[in-house]
Amino acid sequence: MNNIRICIVALSSLLLQACVQTPQTAEEFRKVVPGAMMTKSDTYQVNRPMSDVASTFERLAPKCLNVTVQTVSHSTTSFQNLVARYKATVVRTSERVELHVQQLYETGVLYPSKPPEGGVYLLVADAYAQSNQSARIQLYGPSMGYDALYRAIRGWATGENLGCPDMTTVP
Amino acid sequence: MVLAQLAGCAGRKPYDDESVTKNVTIHAATSSASVFSSVDAILDIYSIDTECRAKYAGTVRLDKPSAAIGIAADRWSYLVFEFVSSSFLAGKHGHMGYELFFKPQADHRYEIEVTYHDEIYDVILRERQPHGTLREMPDLDVEPCRIHAA
């Protein structure tokens, strides 16, 4: 089980580094995701004004995602201690509101190249105004293992669930 | 986060009410995603002095649907809710902390709702107004008061 976990960590967290040059910015991340392994881009619409989505991102992203998480795994033959630091950034532009999530393992993971300041880009969510009462969410991120994070962002966007994702459940 | 780790390392003690009046009621509801995992919620309480120094006051295990505790009024307290998840099959456990700066007012009552469902958690602090209505209280940023363990 630990071997599986190590593989998931290696693949999902470092997949972009392993395959291509590590994206140093959110814009580079957006461009890399469509062609990278184990990533996905997704889009959905929420019936909520863009300004509400933006303010929810601004309120909840730092509170929920600027966290340091420790996970310990052990079996009869191995022991693994991972400390991951997450950083969320919300950027408002005239065109959209951007949520960037970065991840930096402080222990347990070796990076093949120097990660960007704040950690490797894990997920980017862009919110665009569709109408006065609706917004479109465009997501870029890993294709597996981050269900709680995706569900939390959808909850923030819709306003239906303002909870925080348990980041210990991510790979 | 640092304080949570300090408490975790140093060992916890049950929280003794700092106030005779049980002015804070905590409603807790947690459920894990599968029968092969579990989630425990605990609350570490720190008192904060005027120089932003934190002193560990004790821990409340949130293993009952509700608990009433007394937190000193008119003084800052620092509440750290910790969710400890364990996966039996994976032999894995993790800690997530949620921090809350809190200054109860005398003669006011507070309710804290703590939930963890489907790997999403939430902590909501509400103040009960003298006329009975509940008001959700905004989160206060801990950063301006750089807390240090006393």
List its salient traits.
heterodimer; A: 171 residues; alpha+beta; 6-stranded antiparallel beta sheet; 31% helix; 37% strand; disordered N terminus; B: 150 residues; mainly beta; 5-stranded mixed beta sheet; 10 strands
Strand content of chain B: over 45%
Number of helices of chain A: 4
Choose one word for the global shape of chain A.
globular
Distance between the termini of chain A: 12 Å
The largest contact between protein chains, plus residue counts on each side, is: A-B, 28 and 22 residues
Describe this structure in words.
The complex is a heterodimer of chains A (171) and B (150). Chain A is of the alpha+beta class. A 6-stranded antiparallel beta sheet of chain A has the order 1-6-5-4-3-2, with helices on both faces. In chain A, helix 3 packs antiparallel against helix 4. Chain A is globular and about 55 Å long. The two termini of chain A are 12 Å apart. The N terminus of chain A is likely disordered. In chain B, the strands form 2 sheets. In chain B, strands 4-1-7-8-9 form a 5-stranded mixed beta sheet, with no helix packed on it. A 5-stranded mixed beta sheet of chain B has the order 6-5-2-3-10, with helices on one face. Chain B is mainly beta and 150 residues long. Chain B contains 1 helix and 10 strands. The N terminus of chain B is likely disordered. The radius of gyration of chain B is 16 Å and the shape is globular. At the A-B interface, strand 2, helix 4 and strand 7 of A face strand 6 and strand 8 of B.
